Every structure is written in structure tokens, then in C-alpha cells.
Amino acid sequence: MSFINSTLGIVSFALTMPIYAQQAASDDKEITDSRYETCDGQDSHCVKNIEVIEVKGEKLNPISMGAQGVYTLDRKLIKDYRFGNGNLNDLLGVLPGVQYGESAYTAEQVSNIKPAEVSISGANGRATAYLIDGVSNNSNLNNVAGNTDRNLLQDVAGHSQEVFLNLDLIESIEVYDSNIPAKYGNFNGGLVQAQTRKALDKLSFGVSYRQTADDWVEYHNYYSPDFDGSDILDNAVFQKRDFSTYISAPVTDKLGVVAQFQYLESQESLEQLGALSLQEQINHNGFIKFDYALTANDDISLSYLFAPYEGNYFDVNARNSDYTIEGGGTNAALTWQADRSWGYINSQLSWRSSENSKNANSAWYTWLNTAGKSWGEYDGSINSLEGGFGDIKKTQQTLSAKQDFEIPLAKVLDGDYRLSIGYSLEQQTSVFDRLEDAIVYNGSIISPMVDCAGYQLDCVETQLYRSIADLEKELGRPLDLQNNDDFLLYQSNIQQTGQYFQSRQVTPKAKAEAQVNVFSAYLENQLEWQNYSLTLGFRYDYNDFFTNHNLAPRLRGTVSLFEGDGKIVLGANRYYASDAINYKLNEAMLPTHSEVRAIYQHRPQQWQASLTNSGYRYVYNDLETPFSDELTAAYRHQLFGGTLELKWLYRDQQDSINRVRGTNDLGEAILYGANSGSSEYQRYSLSWMATYDNQHIEFNVSHASNTTSADQFDGETRTYINSNDYFLNFSYDDNELVYLRSDNYELSSRSVNDTYHLITRHDMELEKQDFNRPIIANLSWGGDFGNWQLSVYARFNGAQDVVYATGTTKSVNEATSICDGCAPNRKEYPVYRIEKRPSFWLLSGSVKYSLVVARDYTMTLSFEGENILNKRTHQVSPYTTGVELGRRFWLGINLDY
């Protein structure tokens, strides 16, 4: 009820603000009448008759009135809804059906520079195509598991985008969720296309500074039911600064240049095992573009973007766990646009380079929480964690060339035909370089009498504060451990308990490289006849890894009603995925192998190959390319000066690549690729958006469902000998397995029955349903009133089942012996928990005040507030201790010429 009341309040506020009733000259004009009138003969300029042309115009709003399912955010909307870091993804949530990943609302996000992932049309972030001036910004170096755990063993946590584009660079954004033209391909989610700003015909420049800090943030601390009050949560100490400058100028009467630079930095002190440690993130955006008018009908542009990213992190639950992630990239593009009497041509050459690398300690230890290794007591864990997963460097290089043609054809039976054709060539090279062996130690054994015999890293001996002889001399008698007092005295005298590891997994230093060549072509014919339009097209894609010839039909059409005020939109389309290089790179990587050692006369022996199988390889043979079939229907109507849209969207994902366990002829463990996976997405949405002279308002509410087939999951990881003993049914990496806890509440006994499932991280990502909130609603408004610019944005997130990290581990004993002379093996795996997250809603807004400070110089002061009403986001599970973000704001100043 509070959400409804607040929503109605915002609507009332927006509608009662002064709206200049007559809409201005439109970008979308229609000639409604043309006639000649006799002019006044007394007028000296009167010749005979004057032609009077009446033009009916409507101001553009984000909802398209064409057949394409596209929403357009212009420069005004971009400026009004810029909150937080000012990244492209931060803006997309105002549109219907766009959902954010869980990381968008965590306490870390207030200091994080990396944008939250978004889902369009039910797909995860990397399934959406991102374009900057027609050049792809998609990264195939991303790992979805990085959304849950940034510190990965076999990979580097990345992002679906190669570079994080600053909103100050962008003139407009087009977001497609359905009926996407055949011109675009190699994705099975949505499409986001950003157009950068062009050089102006007069000199303009500016500089801006924005900042937020911990003093400007409200934190909410929540404690688990069993919290004893001993360790009170400390809030993070941080500051985030954003400096930006730009210049746009004509160089000659035909050549213009626009350049921009941004420096975004975040420094945060987080609690790590009871002490504050510093995390730092830095992102640069350097951009320059030249626009040259070669002739009246030929334009050439040359652009260069440099946007590196660096983050220095640590694992809050582990000692000596500092690591650095370097990402971002560079791209350059040369574009030629030509307008001829027979049609329009767009030609483009581009080069892209990106990196996603990590520098970390090369060994990870899961010690038992005993004397000398007791830092795990801080978070109540039975283990004490230490170290990292080694150095990895990943790079991606892409060369592409493409041409697009738009050709108007002759009229046939009073119908207008337009032909669109084009092709593209792309070569992409990816490299995965593990720069050193990475070793994961698991299965520590307590051994008070152990003699490490030179093994200093993976074995510790028992150490006493005072020798036994000194204790016995003080007692005046031998120490009797059967005596309770003597036993307690001995226990308190232990400085370090001896323990050693008897098993480890080694990922060898290795370099893998993959190259994929892609050819694409499309043809689309559009017919407009009276009140009807129909577009039929096909897109062809081929890559030399899957070697599939993919032909995707694209069909969409409209029927205009009520003298053009209403429009029915229908569509049936197919979209093919494009991440073949990831699979090819996986095939080239060397597997992890297991090593064990026995103990003899309290001395650990040499490491040797385990009796069990080594790690696994990937094999992808004779696979089909995953695709998504789409059906959509919408009705749009001009209402109250805006556009009302009712939309139904259905996506059927088929031939998704799942993993099948097996072995090859050499007995090696293999994860074979198969096309057994599938999923379905369905959405109903209601939207209304309007743009007036000095105001704009947008409203939408969506109900979505997203289901994944059981075949997509890896499934059970264990084979049971009896109800208690089992063995793993495959050679999984230790870091790939987690426990997922689910609870059932028994009403009769008023008890909770908990169940622990040992699953792969791959399955946990599918189980998370990260982009599967059933109900999402948005209401946003912005307006200019003299020197003041105001904007308000409210978002409602429906309840859903989510996966919470508990920060604890669960210990298991394997039924099989790992080597002769080895003790029964025990391993530790992190525990996650499924819980119902309640619904919540957030209100954000901005206030800007502009004033002229000198001739042609304007200064703008800005305030941006997020979660202004200090609402809960329910990121902390009811059963764990943690911090949530409340109210927070930015302050800024701009100086423009």
C-alpha cells in the first residue's frame, strides 16, 4: 500500500507542475493539409497565391511507434536519470522488462565502479548485444560465476561489456527487447546501442566534479538470530570521486572534433577478519572523435576510445588474500556514411582490444580453525582461509568490417518498398594465459606430533609457549593429561596445533589461444501500404568453430487504427547466440590434477599423483548454435500527449549448451557439450511515456516468468554407498563445488528441516534466478523550470527466491581412500542458502541548479540521491549477519562554456 500511495503522490506531483500546454515543433511531423490561399493585394510581397501547409507534430518519447521493439533515451533523459557512477547500465532500469542482477543492490555497490549486469528479454547480461556507434562492446572474457564470487580459481571475474562507457559521452541510447531488425545479430537477449556525441559547429567545453563518501551514506546493520553481541559490524569507510572534462570544436568548416576524459576512483576500507583493509578501484574514459564532411553527401568519422579499469581487492574472510583485477579496453573505428540518389551506404572498419587479468597469491589454504590458525573464529567458521588462486591474463582482440545499404524501391500498387541489405566480417582472437601453477589445499589433518621435515607452506608443527619440562618443573611432578587441571594447563600452553594437508589440486601453468572467424549477411524488405506495414527479412551467420550455417528469419508488421493514433504490432523472430570462442578456448585449456601424500612416522611424504582421476577437459563436437525464438504482440495508442503500450513477449530458448559427464578412450574425465538445454521467458507489460515542452514522464509495470529446463543443470555430484557414505561421481575441481541449503518448515512439529545439496557453481548460477523477479514497476519524471532541473525515479522489485552466501563452510568425509597410508579424507565447501526475498521499492531523485557566472559560462550545482526514503533492500538473509545500503547521495559541480 505504501508503494501505491507514494506512486500516486509522484504522479500527482508531476501532473500538477506547470506544463506548457502546446507541444513544440516535433521531430516526428506529418503534413495533414496543403492548400492555396489568395494573399492580400495591398501587400507588396503578394504575387498571387500563397501555399499554406499544415503540419501536425508530436514530440518524441522513448516508445517507438514503428514495428521495432525499441525504446530511445535522448540526451535529456540521460542527463535527468544519471545517478551513481554514471554508467550506461545504471540508466536502463527505467525501461519496461529490464532487470538488474542482485549485485546492483548490495552494500559493495556503493563503492563499486563496475556496472551491475542487466537482463533484457530474460537473458543474462552477456547474451545482450552492446554497441557503441555500431561497434560491438561485448566481452567474451566474462565469467557468469564472477557475479557471485569475484575471486575465482579457474577464471577472472569480468563483465559483459569490454569498456564502461561514461554517460557524458552519449548522445542517445536505443534499447531493443523485441522485433529486432536483421541488421543486428549474434545475440539471443536484447540489444543496446549507444550513439556518441558529435562535434558542434561552435566551440564548447566543460569540466565537472562529483563525489560521494561514507558520511553521505546510511547503512543498515542486521544480525543473525544467534548473534551474541560480541562483534559489532563496522561500516565501510570510503570515498568515490568522479572528474570529467570535454571539448567540442570546429577545426575547419568541414572538420570537427569532440574529446572527453573521465577519471572515476573509489577507495574503501572494509573489515577483514576484524581489521580495516583498503580496496581501491579506478576507471578511465578517454575518447576522441573527428567528424569530416567530405562532400555534401559523404561524412567520415574516426573515433578512438581508451577505457582501462583496475581493482585492488581482498577476500574478507581470508588472510593474505589480496588480488588485483585489470580490465577494460581500447577500440578504434573508421566510418563512412554516403547518401546517393539510389540509397544510403554505411561502411565501417573497427579494431578492439580488451583485457581481463588477475594477479594473486598462487596457493589457497583451507586450514582447520585451531590454535595458531584461528582467524576463522572471527566469523564462526570451522576453517581459516588463506591465500589466492594465482596469476591469470586474458586478452581479446577483434577486427571487423561491415557495410549496410538502405535502398528505397519503386512504388508498386501504391505501396512503398524499402530494401535493407548488408554483410560483416569479423575475426576474434582470445588468449587465456595462466602465468604460474595454482594450488588449492583442502582436507587438513590435525596431527599434534607432526614433523614437517622441511615442508613449510602446507604443514605446521605444534608449538608451545613453554616447554613441557618447564611446566613439570613448575608443578614439581610429571604432567598428567588424565587430570582435568593438567589437561587445561596443557591446552592453554599450545601456541600452534600441528596440522598438514594430505591432498591438493594443481592447475598447471599453461597458455591457451583460440581464434574464430565469423561471416554474417542479412536482407530485409519493408512494405508500407495504406494502414499496414510488413517487414520480412533473413539473417545468415557462420563461424568456423561450430561450422553451422544459421539462417534466422525476422518478421514484423503493424496495423494502424483510429486515424494513426493506435497501432497493433506483431512479430516472429529468431536470434542466434554468439559465444563460440568461449567454448573453443575451454577446449584448449589444460585440466587440473589431484595430488596426495601419506604420512610416515609423523612425517609427510612427497606429493604424488592421486589414485583418483585427474581433472576434466572440455570437448565440443557436432553442436548446434543455441537460438531463441520470439513471438510478440503489442498495442500502442497516443494518449494524453504520450504513448500507451501493452506488450506480450515470449522467448523460447533452444539448443542451449549443457555439460555431460563422461570419459574418453584414454580414461580422461571429459565434460562434453550437448544441446539438451532449454528455457522459456514470458512477459506482460503496460507502459505509458510522454514528452512535453519542459517535462517528461515514464511509467511501466511488467510481470515476467523465466524457467530453465532440468537438462541445463549438471545434476547430482555424488554417488552414495549408503545413507552416509558417498564418493564424487566426477573429477570436479574443489573450488567448483558448493553446498546449497534449503529449509522446509514443519507446522506440526514447529521445526525446520534443512537439506544440503552439493552442487556445482554452474548449477548455482542457474538456481539463483538472478534476473527472475516476477514483478517490476517503474515511475520516473523530469522537468526543467527556469534555472532548476528536477527528476524523480521510483522502482518496485517484486519478491523472489534468491541464493544468499552464508560465509561458512561445511565439512564432508569422502568414503574412498585417496592413497595408501592416507587418513580418511575430509574437504570443506562453502555454504549458500535459498531464501525468499521480500519485495522492496526504492526512490531516487536529483536536483540541479544552473546559473550564468560570466559571459557564456554556466555553472551547475547538482544533488543526486538514491534510496531517498532509506528503505531496506533485503540483501542480508534473515539468518546471517550483514550490511545493507540505505539512503545515499552525490554532490557535484559543472562548469560549461
UniProtKB/TrEMBL annotation:
Pfam families per record: Plug (PF07715)
KW Metal-binding (keyword) present: no
Keywords, in A-Z order: Cell outer membrane, Membrane, Transmembrane, Transmembrane beta strand, Transport
Top-level taxonomic group: Bacteria
Gene3D superfamilies: TonB-dependent receptor, beta-barrel domain, TonB-dependent receptor, plug domain
GO CC field: cell outer membrane
Principal cellular location given in the protein's record: membrane
Compartments it resides in: Cell outer membrane
Topology versus the membrane: Multi-pass membrane protein
Domain TonB-dependent receptor plug: 67-189
Annotated InterPro entries: Beta-barrel_TonB_sf, Plug_dom, Plug_dom_sf, TonB-dep_rcpt-like
Record has Hydrolase as a keyword: no
Alphabetical list of SUPFAM superfamilies matching this protein: Porins
Family: Belongs to the TonB-dependent receptor family.
Protein name per Swiss-Prot or TrEMBL: TonB-dependent receptor plug domain-containing protein
